[in-house]
Amino acid sequence: MNLIPVGVLGTGKYVPERILTNQELETMVETNDEWIVSRTGIRERRIAAEGQATSDLCFEASQVALSNAGITADQLDLIIVATITPDMSFPSTACILQEKLGAKKAAAFDLSAACSGFVYGLANAANFIATGTYKYALVIGADCLSKITDYTDRNTCILFGDGAGAVVIGEVPEERGFKSFELGADGTGGPLLKIEGGGSRNPASQNSLDQRLHYIYMAGAEVFKFAVRIMGNAADEALRKAGWEKTDIDLLVPHQANMRIIQSSLNRLELSEDKCMINLDKYGNMSAASIPVALAEASEQGRLNEGDRLILVGFGGGLTWGATALVW
Ligand code: UT7
């Protein structure tokens, strides 16, 4: 079967206006700017307004991506929203977005792979296009982590922010586009990063509320160790499958969880910081939105030239990981 080459036709991002600074967090929990910056690299993050939900963020980012791709919503065949903070259990955020955009002919579904969700979404959508099933797909990574963050827990509340990043993907010339995907999961690490409440195991109840089961729980140090190992491994695998060397990389677009994790990936890939998109100082960890927002900003800043070789790589709850080698 001849596969159609698939790549990114347009990018877009949206972050809420409200900024939550480290200084403000100092008034909320026992922490300080120096600790947060030195341990994570984060200085501020964006927080969705009351009543603003994930699909609202998706809508804004999607409009920009569609416009940059030069297509209209009614041309979309598929919408995938990678998120762990859907508007509601169902209908999916992708279906809510489909209605908002007026993408009448698009199939739509959500994908749950936490911070790796965007790369998982790209891999799914790319296969539909490569096989000729669909022509245009909209893939979005979006999360409103502020809605599930416990602002009395200093271990987690300093890390997270809200945002959405979107790409339209479709056919590109043979030499461009996605050259490999590396996806993986290790369910044994599931308990390290989770929200226990609100699902079929622990439905919402007074008890689940009292136990604060509707907030993110994270064993930070263990997730950190996993991240350092897996970011390098996943990027290496994406390189190997694409037939690239480390020296071929023009830009690394990593998940923005912690500057020390990004630094370890750069060391492993023998890359200097100028070959890496870093924006976690402004946004913190936006889960599935981190990679596509960084990609959209790289495009806005003119850092992406035709023919550039990119590695997108992320890790997250599940535990999961995902990487792709992409020629711009
Ligand atoms: O998207 C994927 C999701 N998550 C991640 O990627 C997170 C991965 N993990 C991390 O980024 C890091 O583990 C953290 C930033 C969460 C924590 O950094 P750490 O260097 O691993 O610190 P730690 O958890 O080992 O804690 C060190 C100390 C502890 O005090 P003691 O027990 O040594 O007295 C913590 O209680 O720092 C304390 N601490 C804080 N101090 C000030 C923890 N949070 C804070 C805080 N402010 N916000």
UniProtKB/TrEMBL annotation:
Active site: C115, H255, N285
Location of the Beta-ketoacyl-[acyl-carrier-protein] synthase III C-terminal domain: 239-328
SUPFAM superfamilies attached to this UniProt entry: Thiolase-like
Pfam family, one: ACP_syn_III
Gene3D superfamilies: 3.40.47.10
The keyword Ribonucleoprotein belongs to this UniProt entry's keyword annotation: no
InterPro entries the record matches: ACP_syn_III_C (IPR013747), ACP_syn_III_N (IPR013751), FabH (IPR004655), Thiolase-like (IPR016039)
GO terms assigned for molecular function: beta-ketoacyl-acyl-carrier-protein synthase III activity
Compartments reported by the entry: Cytoplasm
Enzyme Commission code(s) on record: 2.3.1.180
Record keywords, A-Z: Acyltransferase, Cytoplasm, Fatty acid biosynthesis, Fatty acid metabolism, Lipid biosynthesis, Lipid metabolism, Multifunctional enzyme, Transferase
Superkingdom of origin: Bacteria
Pathway per the UniProt entry: Lipid metabolism; fatty acid biosynthesis
Reaction(s) catalysed by this chain's protein: malonyl-[ACP] + acetyl-CoA + H(+) = 3-oxobutanoyl-[ACP] + CO2 + CoA
Keyword Glycoprotein: no
Residues in Beta-ketoacyl-[acyl-carrier-protein] synthase III N-terminal domain copies: 109-187
Region described as ACP-binding: 256-260
Function: Catalyzes the condensation reaction of fatty acid synthesis by the addition to an acyl acceptor of two carbons from malonyl-ACP. Catalyzes the first condensation reaction which initiates fatty acid synthesis and may therefore play a role in governing the total rate of fatty acid production. Possesses both acetoacetyl-ACP synthase and acetyl transacylase activities. Its substrate specificity determines the biosynthesis of branched-chain and/or straight-chain of fatty acids.
Family designation: Belongs to the thiolase-like superfamily. FabH family.
Quaternary structure annotation from Swiss-Prot or TrEMBL: Homodimer.
Entry remark concerning the domains of this protein: The last Arg residue of the ACP-binding site is essential for the weak association between ACP/AcpP and FabH.
PANTHER family per the UniProt record, alphabetical: 3-OXOACYL-[ACYL-CARRIER-PROTEIN] SYNTHASE 3 (PTHR34069), BETA-KETOACYL-[ACYL-CARRIER-PROTEIN] SYNTHASE III (PTHR34069:SF2)
Name the UniProt record assigns to this protein: Beta-ketoacyl-[acyl-carrier-protein] synthase III
